[in-house]
Structure formats: structure tokens, C-alpha cells
Amino acid sequence: MRVKFLRDVVGVTISRGQLSKLIQKASAAFEQAYQELLEQLPSETTLNVDETGHKENKKRFWTWCFRADAYTLFKIADTRGSRVLIDVLGEDFAGVIGCDYFSAYRKYMKDFDVLVQFCITHLIRELKYLAGLSDKATADYGQKLLDAMRDMFSIFHKAEELTEKAFAEAMDESRKTFLDLALSEVPESRPAQNLANRFRKHGDAYFRFITTPGVKPTNNLAEQAIRFVVIDRYITQGTRSEKGRTWCERIWTVLATCASQGKSAFDFIYQSIQAHFSDQPLPSLLGP
User: Fold this and answer.
1) By C-alpha distance, which of 66, 54, 53, 41 is closest to 223?
2) CA neighbor of 42 nearest in space, from 1, 80, 91
3) Dist CA 105 CA 59 (whole Å)
4) Residue 66 pLDDT grade (very low, low, confident, very high; cuts 50, 70, 90)
5) Residue 164 burial by CB count (10 A; 0-12/13-18/19+): exposed, middle or buried?
6) Fold adopted by 2-116+221-277
7) Model confidence over 186-217: pLDDT tens digits?
8) Largest CB tally within 10 Å, which of 24, 116, 133, 206?
């Protein structure tokens, strides 16, 4: 695909072997910038994390997206398990992770006492599912929680109209109301019981955004950052080697981080390659 693009669009004739060597050399130019971000991740106070499938020949890999305030890092791994979180963030991560309810995050949370903000958007989808079921008791239960969530966010969107104290008190009261409703008069249906059990175990993890500055109620930041990677996967059909994985990790990180920082990705790539081949100091993706 990339060879065809260079031939048909750019007008450059190049073999696959030559292209592979060229990409390897370019990839080396981004190694330092990528490593700096990788080393910075464990010290972040808030992170949003998401993952999506990745193909390599006939093997299944996963692309993990770590979205910080000032940068985005991608890591391709052969597992969707919590080991990736341990490898990247360590066992002593002291920040808050925004994520969905996937088991890897729950295991990491449980094993190392990590604080988590489960995505409210995903929760709302599940509540809507319950509210649409044919079982009346379960549907009423789902609708009751949807209404409570709607009331909570009507307060959330009025933050600027309230004093800091009044806002905090109103949000905390709304949180207590929601959890009380979620855990009282729960229908006997399996979907309702499963959701209630979830709130018994992890209720506070859905409302960390109320008490912790900088924490978002949804995981939209990571989900938005990973979208172009999904598109790239459909176009290229993945990678063929570890070198290809490394290239993708680095170039995706450069592109996403430059976009979030308002920088020209072309300029950063040009400066990095030029510095690498002339043995000059390499540009960084940390800071301005």
C-alpha cells in the first residue's frame, strides 16, 4: 500500500525493501522523543487509556492508547491484559486512570490500589439498554437511574453558576442519590442484579470526577485519540514485524501529540530526521 502510494501519488519509484530500510532509519529518529514520553507516563496525575485490535500477519496484537493532558502515546502489545498497564505505568502509579469497565483495568485497580474513573458514557449506554428491555421492573429500574444521571449532569453543567462549595455539595448529594437508587429495590433480573453488584464493588470509581480535579467523567479523550489508528489498521491491514510495530508506535505518537499540542507534525518529523542524520540534539515532544 505504501509503495503504491509513493508511486502513484508522490511519483517516487521504490521497492518494498528500500521502503522498509527507509522507515527503519526514520523510526530511529523518533526513538528518544518516544522514550521520553514513555518515561513520563507513570508520573502523570490523570490519564485516559483505551485499546483496540492490531493485526500482524495472522497474529492478534493490541494497540494501547495513553492520553495525557499534553501528549498521546501508543503501545502495541501481544496482550489485552493488565500486564501492559504494569509494564507502562508500574505498580506504584499514583494518578487516576480514565477508562471503560474492561477487566484489565479492574484487575490493575484491584492488584495495586490504583484510582480509576470508569466512563460515564459507557454507563449511560448500559442504562439505556436496561430501560429498553421488555421486563417492566428492569426497564423501570434502568429509567430511574437514567433520570438520576440526567439530574446529576444538569448540576454538572451549571458549575459556573454556583459557588465552589455549593457545586461540590450538590454534586455529592446527587452521587449519593444515584447510588441509593442503584442499590435499593433492585429487580431480580440478571442484568439489573449485575449492575447493582457492580455499584456495590466499584460505585465510587464512577464518580471520581466529582472529587478529583482534572478527572473527566468520560473516556472520550482516549477514544478520540485512537480513532485514526483504527482507520490506519483498515487501510494498511496492520504490520508484518516487530520493526513495523515500533514504527507505528512512534509515528502514531508523533502525529497524535503534535495534533494535541498544535504543532506541525511535518516540521517535527523533518527536524527529527535532520537532527538524527547530522548527529544534532533531537527535538522533544515534552514541553512547548
Assistant:
1) 66
2) 91
3) 23
4) very high
5) exposed
6) Nucleotidyltransferase; domain 5 (3.30.420)
7) 999 999 999 999 999 999 999 999 989 899 99
8) 206
Residue with the three cell numbers 500500500: 1
Domain ranges of the chain: 2-116+221-277, 120-211
Output the pLDDT for position 4: 46
Other C-beta atoms lying within 10 Å of the C-beta of residue 203:
16
| Predicted TM-score (pTM) of this structure | 0.89
83, 62 contact by CB (below 8 A): no
Read out DSSP for 143-201?
HHHHHHHHHHHHHHTTGGGS-HHHHHHHHHHHHHHHHHHHHSS--SSHHHHHHHHHHHH
14-29: burial string, b at 16+ Cβ within 10 Å, e else: eeeeeebeebeebbbb
CA distances from 129 to 123, 135, 168 (A): 10, 12, 30
Residue 31 cell numbers, joined:
526513538
Q: Cβ distance 38 to 73 under 8 Å?
A: yes
Write out pLDDT tens, residues 137-159.
Answer: 999 999 999 999 999 999 999 98
